[in-house]
Amino acid sequence: MIAIMSDLALTLAPLLGDDLFVPAEAVLFHKDDPVEHLYVVRSGAVHLVRYGESGSVAVMQRATAGSVLAESSIFGSNYHCDGLVVADATVGRASMATVRAAMRDDPALLDALARHLAREVQRTRSRVELLSCKTVEDRLDGWLALNGGALPQRGAWRSVAEDIGVSPEAFYRELQRRRKA
After folding, report:
1. Three-state DSSP class for 86?
2. Residue 21 near residue 90 (C-beta atoms within 8 A)
3. What is residue 135's predicted lDDT score, i.e. its pLDDT?
4. In sequence order, which ranges of the chain are alpha helices (DSSP H)?
5. What is the rounded CA–CA span in Å between residue 101 and residue 58?
């Protein structure tokens, strides 16, 4: 599979040290840890997660190959989520001190960051709109419209259910309904 790097990830590439392999279920960082590194996911998957007092889990970002992880942490002193590796991953990382120094000296990096953050705001607004839909059918239609009109391979369907905020069972029932129609 070819990794599609974001413009920001490409601009950050010269700042990244050696790649680091991280096994599934490892934690890159915990909420409230000091921000020491900025990560670019080369392969695998890393989620930013927040845990509610009731034990609920909210996935704030699903970073896969080519994604910059927890980019908003560039401007913070502590991580706002846990960085949980959900599939064996290889990540590049740059020290945050290096990234912040480069931002002061490199207008191209600031431009890439501003464009990246603007796209993330747009994506987040689209996701909020999708989650406001009342039915699984409407949520799936919205997800398909945002993601090129096709479902991923069968093994990734659970993540689509999570993306649209429904149980895997409700998602599978909707797929079955569509097959019959």
Report:
1. strand
2. yes
3. 95
4. 7-12, 96-105, 107-131, 136-146, 157-163, 168-180
5. 32
Q: pLDDT value at position 133?
A: 93
Q: Is residue 53 part of a domain?
A: yes
Work out how many domains the chain is built from and give that number.
Answer: 2
What is the C-alpha to C-alpha distance for residues 157 and 131, in angstroms, rounded to an integer? Answer: 17
Place of tokens 């290096």: 98
Structural domain for 34, as ranges: 7-125
Question: Within this chain, do residues 46 and 103 fall inside the same structural domain, yes or no?
Answer: yes
At 81-140, the pLDDT tens digits run: 999 999 999 999 999 999 999 999 999 999 999 999 998 888 888 888 888 999 999 999
The tokens for 48 are: 């930013």
Q: Please state, in angstroms and rounded to a whole number, the distance separating the CA atoms of residues 4 and 162.
A: 23
Q: Mark whether 111 and 152 lie in a shared domain.
A: no
The label of the residue with tokens 């689509």 reads 160
121 occurs within a structural domain:
yes
Residue 1 covered by a domain: no
- Residue 116 CA, distance from chain mean position: 13
108 in a domain, yes or no? Answer: yes
Sign of CA dihedral 57, 60, 61, 62: positive
- Cα separation, 5 vs 40, whole angstroms: 9
pTM: 0.78
Structure tokens at 26: 């490892």
Tell me: do 113 and 90 sit in the same domain: yes
